[in-house]
Structures are given as structure tokens and as C-alpha cells.
Amino acid sequence: MSYEIKGLNEECGVFGIFGAEDASKITYFGLYALQHRGQEGAGIVSSDGQKLHQYRNRGLLAEVFSNPADLDRLVGDSAIGHVRYGTSGNNSLANVQPFLFRFFDGDVGLAHNGNLTNAVTLRRQLEAQGAVFQSTSDTEMLIHLIRQKRGMGFVDALKVSLNETKGGFAFLLLRKDALYAALDPNGFRPLVVGQMDSGAYVVCSETCALDAVGAKFVRDVQPGELIIIDKDGMKIDHYTTDTQLAICSMEYIYFARPDSIIHGVTVHSARKKMGALLAKEQPAPKNADMVIGVPNSSLSAASGYAEAAGLPYEMGLVKNQYIARTFIQPTQKLREQGVKMKLSAVRGVVEGKSVVIVDDSIVRGTTSVQLVKMLKEAGAKEVHMRISSPPFRYPHFYGIDISDRSQLMAARHTVKEMAEIIGVDSLGFLSVPGLIKAIDVPDAGDAPNGGLTVAYFTGEYPTPLYDYEESYKESFKQFPDRKDED
């Protein structure tokens, strides 16, 4: 399995609401707040109490619902919505969620954020038993598993099916008279519950979406939980108690919006602490004139680094906020041009200066090379790069489109080699203990790594890899670890 890695691509975003007038319109606003989690497609399924209604398409949310009539047709007082970044399956309309399944005993809408690590095995088993799939997405597995459980009620069938799915997942399911939310046994993906003044319940990927629709935060969905919301209110159930918190650390490092709160930790605060600890672990050179951040996800870490280092925090890079989505570019020259379209160096700030540039991660390294080149062309005397996460050496199997080591720069090179390739005067990363300390999840208890998944930096995964096990081992034969004094 091999992918062209352009950088870290966001998760998907899910939003659900039950018991609200104009549910689909509220869902639209909630999804708007989650647009950073997926730009390939968007959709909404609503329920009027008798029937489910669906509209979905490829593109950004505003493009998908550019015709107000498409939203107006989604009537009812409950809805689920989804913004998609494809972690499994290709970018076709058939894979845009939420899915809508029509059955003689009631329609079901389904939306999913994450990646099932046993999807290939499940699909083979289900197809051998006669299942016909409408998409190439792993999300569809769940509904086929549920329909297999003949003679069981919906909730019981859902619980058994959730125990058969492995990996990272946050599922929302909508029936005509109920909304269901389920989180994987490790809580890899964030999922929160809120409530509006009207009493309507909201379940979504991040608290920033609660804020966008005026809902008050109620609680984080915990690993292994099944939340059921209907006319009688909210019921908290479990499909398994064999759980251990292992939140994806990349949510704090990169994916989530800085104003979101995940398991009691404000993302901006965590990133600022990452920067401050990075300044202690990887100090700026004595002749450094300033610290600059890479817009937008690295700005919090850069401000923390500057504060701890006692250096001015300057705007040395500017992002074009109106750039269109950047698709896979067929040539290196076009990729480089894409970086220049998105970012530009401020010559009047960096010219003749020794600059410390703080970024959140290095994946393939292409962007880092271009940033350094850009700063030096703008007259920077020296460029020192500091990364507010550890070296990304191992694949991510729980919802990000990185399941191969071949293009992970840190999997193929030592830190010293990376510095030479990127063209920086020095390069330093935050340590794994530093990352865990910076995030400091308050309800982690005695969970390993402070309740975080740090496998992308250590290679120690909190679950079996199932379908990915063999390809993972094979990639190690091709790209054995290259570690140095970092």
C-alpha cells in the first residue's frame, strides 16, 4: 500500500443534532466550524420523524450547499452531517457522507470519522456472505454488520457490530426517531456532547462547533461509549468496558482548531506549552534575532517558543487566506509553486536576520524545503528550524492518510541528514516526554503516555494493526529505523 504524502491531511468532521427546529441549518453552521477537518466533500441527512432526507456532494461545504433549496429540502428536527477528508476509499461522490440506507424496517443515516484497521478482512467476509457495497469507504462496514444480526433489536445489533470493528472511529447514526453516537475503545478521535438552550442535544467532533451553534458543552464522549438520544433525552450506554484512553496526539499538535477543548485541554494552550518546552529542549542559537511561526497551526507553538526563549515573536511568513484548495500536483515544480501561492516571506522582517522558524511537524519535507528557500531568498542570514512535535517516523493507522513509511522523511533520515536536505542551519524536535507533558490530559488517570497515542513517534501502537500488520513489517525491511542523538 503506497500513498503520495503531501503533508498531514485532516481527519473528517461529524456533527449531529436531535430535537431542534431547522436541524439541517444548525448542522450546516456546525459543519462550517469543522471545515478544517475535511475539504473533499460534505453532506447532511435529516429526519422529519417519519422519513430520512439526504443531500451530499464533493467540494467545500459552501460549494455543496450553494443552492439554498438543497438545504431547505432537508426538513425535520434531527440531522447528522459530515465534512470529508478521505482516509479510506477514493474521492468520489459514492464515498461522500453521511450515507443513507433505506430498509423496509426503517432508514439509517451513517457518518464516520476515523479509519477501521480490519476493514479489508471485514469486507471480504461480508461480501462472501452476500453483502453488496455501494462505496469503497470503510464506513459502510458497520451497516452491513448490523444487518447481519437478524433477530436482534437495533441497539443490540449495533453494540455487537461495534465490537467487531477495530481501529479509530467516531460514528454518528440517525434513525427516524433517535440519534446514536459511538466512540472506539481508545477514544482516538475526539467527540463531544453539548446542549442548546432549547434542550436539543448536539454531538460533534470538536467544541468549536458547539460554540458556533450556541450549544453549551456537556461532556466528552468516553472510549467504548454508546450515546442514545431520543424524545426521552440522552442515555449513556456502553458497547464495551474493555477500554483505555489513547487520544490521537496529532489532534493537539495539528488537526483540531486552537479554540477547541479536547478532554479538558484547550488546544491553543497545549500548543503554546509545546513551544515553551521545545525552547528549553532545543534552545535558539545565541545570535537568533526572532522567532516566526508557520501559519496557521504553528502560531501558538511559535508564540510559546518566543516567550520562553526571550526573543521577539515576528510575522515573518504571511498566509494567503483566500487560496483555493491545493490538489495533488503532478510535478515538483508545480508543488513548489503551490507552496508559494499559500505562503510568502516578509522581506522587511527577515532580511539580514537570524531566524528561528517553528513548525508543528515534518512529514515528507517538501514544504520545509520550500519555506527555508523562501526565507533565504527574502534575505534571512540564518534559518534555524524547530518542530513542536517529535520526528514523525511511523505510519498513522487510526484516521490519517499515512499508512506507509516510504515518504516519511524522519523514517528515512537522521535529524542531521534532515537538516542538510531541508537546508537549515540547525534543526530540533520536541521529545515524546515533552509532548506528553505539554498536553497533560487531566482525566488520563494511569493510561500509558498520559492518555495519548504517540505511536507515530515511537512505533509502539496501542492496538493490534490487523490488516496493516504485514505491510507495516514489510515497510521496515525497506526502511529500517534511522535514529541519531535526538
TrEMBL record:
Its EC number is 2.4.2.14. Residues 12-232 form the Glutamine amidotransferase type-2 domain. The keyword Ribonucleoprotein does not apply. Mg(2+) binds at S297, D359, D360. Pathway: Purine metabolism; IMP biosynthesis via de novo pathway; N(1)-(5-phospho-D-ribosyl)glycinamide from 5-phospho-alpha-D-ribose 1-diphosphate: step 1/2. It comes from the Bacteria. It is an enzyme of class 2 (transferase). Binds 1 Mg(2+) ion per subunit. The active site is at C12. It catalyses: 5-phospho-beta-D-ribosylamine + L-glutamate + diphosphate = 5-phospho-alpha-D-ribose 1-diphosphate + L-glutamine + H2O. The keyword Mitochondrion does not apply. Keywords: Glutamine amidotransferase, Glycosyltransferase, Magnesium, Metal-binding, Purine biosynthesis, Transferase. Its cofactor is Mg(2+). InterPro entries: GATase_2_dom, Ntn_hydrolases_N, PRTase-like, PRTase_dom, PurF, PurF_N. In the C-terminal section; belongs to the purine/pyrimidine phosphoribosyltransferase family. HAMAP family: PurF. Catalyzes the formation of phosphoribosylamine from phosphoribosylpyrophosphate (PRPP) and glutamine. This is Amidophosphoribosyltransferase. It comes from Ligilactobacillus ruminis. The lineage of its organism: Bacteria, Bacillati, Bacillota, Bacilli, Lactobacillales. The gene is purF.
